[in-house]
Amino acid sequence: MDNKDYTILICDDDADITAALRIYLAQEGYQIICAENGLEAVRMLDKHVVHLVLLDVMMPIMDGIQAAVKIRESSNVPILFLSAKSEDTDRILGLHMGGDDYITKPFNPVELMARIKAALRRYARLGGMGAGVGQAATAQATTASAAASPTAQATTATASAAAALSAATSTSANPEGAPEGSENIYQTGDLVLDDNRKQVMFDGEEVSLTALEYNILKLLMANMDRVYTSAQIYEAVWDEPALQVPKTVSVHIRHIREKIEINPKDPRYLKVIYGLGYKVVKLA
Predict the structure, then answer these.
(1) Residue 114 pLDDT > 60, yes or no?
(2) Which helix (H) or strand (E) holds 225?
(3) Helices (H), 107-176
(4) What is the DSSP letter of 275?
(5) 133, 180, 246, 277: which has the fewest C-beta neighbours closer than 10 Å?
(6) Who contacts 34 (Cβ-Cβ below 8 Å, separation ≥6)?
(7) Is the predicted pLDDT of residue 85 greater than 50, yes or no?
(8) Cα(101)–Cα(265) distance, rounded to whole angstroms?
(9) CB 124 within 8 A of CB 110
(10) Among the residues of 29-134, which ranges form H helices?
């Protein structure tokens, strides 16, 4: 897909920032719709096919955190928070409430565009998996799925990301217990990740993951019992240098645990190796 095939929703109550974002995004060729508060953004997602949301945190009527929680009830569309709050606690809160990234104001336009492209690339790889319910969400998943073709991936993925994902999937293509001839299916106990269908099943039920959560779990399940540091996970999944990222990774790990573990505080599959990193345990 070209940039013109992607629609980005800008949600900010500051007219000057919205105008600036429109200029930056229009120069890159993206389609743009705007909202002035979180409630308006939530309603727009029900009416429009949206591939990424730029969401301010502090807004009237419904703030960005509340809006993100509401959006996550039905959609896994990437959410990038834009906020003047730069404390670690604010960043962690934003990620914990469903954000894929957190960018502080004032932001560097070049960095913002790079993060948008990275988020869209990850989302396209998964075909907009688990987008949610309703006509807009269904169309969103279909549109992003087209972008997940080998041709689209080859033209958008960077060489380093492709190498990392290739290394992650080359070691366990046919796990024990997978159907004969099936590739890219990873299983441990009752947890199954089918990378052909971009689907995760736990105890027979489908698990809805964001693009980042899926790619983290895929990396760990493709290399079961191998310990990955936060930096290694970040560089492989985010495709960016790992600079002060442990808390960012830990938030997403916590989200995954809440979805695949019966007791997230006493995990069976996704383990923390204290002082070293994380791993998925291979179970019979």
Answers:
(1) yes
(2) none
(3) 109-125, 135-147, 150-156, 159-169
(4) T
(5) 180
(6) 9, 10, 11, 18, 22
(7) yes
(8) 25
(9) no
(10) 38-47, 64-71, 88-96, 109-125
* DSSP-assigned beta bridge partners for residue 10: 34, 54
Give the chain's radius of gyration (CA, Å): 18
Tokens of 264: 């997230």
Query: Which ranges in the chain belong to alpha helices (H)?
Result: 15-28, 38-47, 64-71, 88-96, 109-125, 135-147, 150-156, 159-169, 211-221, 230-237, 246-260
Q: Which pLDDT score, from 0 to 100, does residue 36 have?
A: 93
**279 pLDDT higher than 90:** yes
In whole angstroms, give the CA distance from residue 22 to residue 182.
Answer: 45
Q: Are 10 and 59 in contact, with CB atoms under 8 Å apart?
A: no
pTM for this model (two decimals)? 0.58
> Cα separation of 29 and 24, whole Å?
9
The domains located in the chain, with CATH, are 3-146 (3.40.50.2300), 158-280 (1.10.10.10)
Distances (CA, A) of 41 to 76, 107, 116, 220, 248: 15, 21, 18, 34, 25
Q: What is the mean pLDDT of the segment spanning 254-259? A: 90
The per-residue pLDDT for 128 is: 57
Q: Give 114's Cβ-side CA count (13 Å radius).
A: 11
* Alpha-carbon gap, residue 284 to 248, rounded angstroms: 31
Three-class secondary structure of residue 9 per DSSP:
strand
**Contact status, residue 94 vs residue 83, Cβ threshold 8 Å:** yes
Tally of residues, the chain: 284
Q: How confident is the model at residue 245 (pLDDT cuts 50, 70, 90)?
A: low
User: What are the phi and psi torsion angles at 209 (to 5°)?
Assistant: -120, 150
Amino acid 159 reads A
Q: Quick one: tokens of 182?
A: 């099936």
CA–CA separation, 253 vs 209, rounded Å?
11
